[in-house]
Structures are given as C-alpha cells and as structure tokens.
Amino acid sequence: MKPVDLILLHPPSVYRFRELPIFHGPISDVIPSSSIFENYPIGFLTLSEYLSRHGMSVRIVNLAMKMLRDFSFDVDGFLAKLHPAAFGIDLHWLPHVDGALSLAEAIKRLHPGIPVIFGGLSATYYRQEILRDYPFVDFIVCGDSTEEPLRLLMEAILFHGDYGTVPNLMWRDGEGKVTENGISYRPTHLDYVHFDYSHPVKMTMKYHDPSGYLPFRNWLSNPVMAVFSCRGCLHDCVSCGGSASAFRGICKRERPAFRSPELLAKDVRNIARVTGAPIMVIGDLLQGGNGYAETFLQAIRRYRIRNELAIEFFHPPPPDFVRKMADSLINFNVEISPESHDPRVRKAFGKSYGNDELEASIDALIA
C-alpha cells in the first residue's frame, strides 16, 4: 500500500483523560458521544471523500475512540508508526482545545518533519493565537467549507507549491513568519460535496481499522446518521457558536450555503438503503424558504423512507407545514429548543416567537 497523503486525527477533549481526575460536567449531554467528545465532525467525511475523489489518499483515525475503548492503548506507539505527507487535526468544538494542541505537540515530537494542519470553527476563531503561541502547528485551514482549500494545500505540500496562493490558509514558513491569506473561499451552495456514508465503510476495509472510523463509542448498538441542509444560519441565538453573527465574524459568511433539497432527499435515501438507523436532518429546512422545504418533502415522499427522521427547527413550524410533513414522511419526530416557557427569556436568547405560535405547532404535531 502506498504511503497515505493525509491522516485526519480526531483527539479527545482532554488528551490525558485516562490519567487525570476530571469532572467533565454535563457538557456532552446534547450529543450522542461521551464527555470525551469522541464523535468526530461530519467535515472529516466530506474532506476525506472530496480529496479521495481528487486522487489523494486520506485516512481518518478517531484517536479519541481508540483511547476510550482501550485504556492501555499506546498513543505514542501508534502515532510513531504513521508516516503520511501531513497530519490534520480538528479543533472544531472548543472542548477539544487541550486534546488538539496536546496531540499536535506529540506528533511534532515524533515526526518533526511532517506538517500539522488544524481546521474547524474554533481553530479559525483562534488562528492568530494558535500560530503565535504553538510552534507545533504549521497550518490552519480557516472557514466553514475547507474541502477545496485543503486540496490545494495538500497539492502544495506534496509538490512543493506556493502556500501563498491557497485560499483560507494561515501558515508559518520555515523561518517562523506567519502569513494569513484571507478567507476568500466561501461557496454559496453545498452541492459540490458528497455526504457518502459508503466512503468510510470502504476506508475501514482499506485500512483494516474499524475503531478508527466509528463515530462514537456506542454507535454499533445505538447508531444514528445525519444529513446537512446547510452551513451557516439565519438566526442569532446568543449562546450559539454557529449563529449568523458567528459565521459572519469567524468565517466571513453572510448567508447560509444550502444543499439543494433534491440532493438532501437523496442523501437520506442513500443512508436508508444500507441501514435502518434514525437519520437527523440538521438545519431548519424552513431557513431556505417554504419552497425549499416543500421541495424536500416532495422529493422524500417518493422514496418512502421508513427510517425515523429527526427534523430540526429553529422556529415552530406552521401547522400547515406540519400536516405536509405528516403526509410525506412515514416516521418522524421534530426537534426544537424554545429555551424557556417565558417568551421574555426566549426573546432575550434570540428567539422571537411566542407561546401561541409554539403551542399551535405542538397541537398540529400531536393531532
């Protein structure tokens, strides 16, 4: 097997969690993984598929999962045997800051000549501090859609190209000088990416590494899948790192980039062909407008999906739309976070709907 071009490593939230007495608190209660945050971001899947489609070899290693499943797992011994052209580490969720930086430091100690690439929303936000204070990080690919910038960076690494031409890149040269190229790659749609869940299955067999590709610890006994309608948001909830103002400030994104509703429905169908697991539809369909949401329902109705679909809403869906969902979907539930029974608290949080609107939606859902 030829050497791997890029290995994407997902760290635990705290690198030495197996040694330190830590009280993690309820920080992971809203995600399927544990407090170690062993669930790697869906971006690993789209990055791996995109680069593979363009002729590069990519391996995903869920290092957090390996450490969580086997407390005797030798991290340094495992990393020392890896010899890619570059390592990529996600710092998307801020709880990973210790794990990501500690992993990067370990890699540089073991492989001083191999570049280390960071990416993710938290890495983008703290890009200046990371490259200023942590010399074991060489590159940060910034923004919310880094498939093409990462491809261009990998070409530059593999063929000794010019890093200065890679969009969305912040980097350190051989003399320690830090350069920021600017976040100029901001695709207006998501139709160029493939949410192909057969890809990690093929890669699992290629690299003989089931635990490296498992999303989280209990996934085999309690699997859940996801499709994404967009990147970005129209709403501005005060505590959300993925709000409209957050995307504007961090990623320079003015509006969400939507996946076409027909392709989104096909993503659901493709998953349902291979598993009966629940499927989460991430991102409020109504953000794209009534036409977008209804086109999705028309497309999905033709496929007669029997998996349970979890449909996310940021604003109560109107009763008429609820009825259209019931006509189009065989098995579904709705997820919404009103934050409080008190509309004043809800409004302060950034959600402007009242209880009458919320109750009308609930009445339609349970009718």
**Order of neighbouring strands in the sheet with most strands:** 2-1-3-4-5-6-7
Whole-number tally of structural domains: 2
From the helix content, strand content and strand pairing, which structural class follows?
alpha/beta
Number of E strands? 13
Averaged pLDDT, please? 93
Please describe the biggest sheet, giving its number of strands, its sense, and whether it closes into a barrel: 7 strands, mixed
The residue ranges in which pLDDT falls below 50 over 5 or more consecutive positions are none
The helix count comes to 15
Tell me the strand percentage band.
5-15%
Would you mind describing this structure in some detail?
The chain is α/β, with parallel strands linked by helices and 367 residues long. The chain folds into 2 domains: 6-180, Response regulator (Rossmann fold); 223-366, Alpha-Beta Barrel (TIM Barrel). It has 15 helices and 13 strands. The protein has a 7-stranded mixed beta sheet, with helices on both faces. A 4-stranded parallel beta sheet has the order 8-11-12-13, covered by helices on one side. A two-stranded antiparallel sheet has the order 9-10.
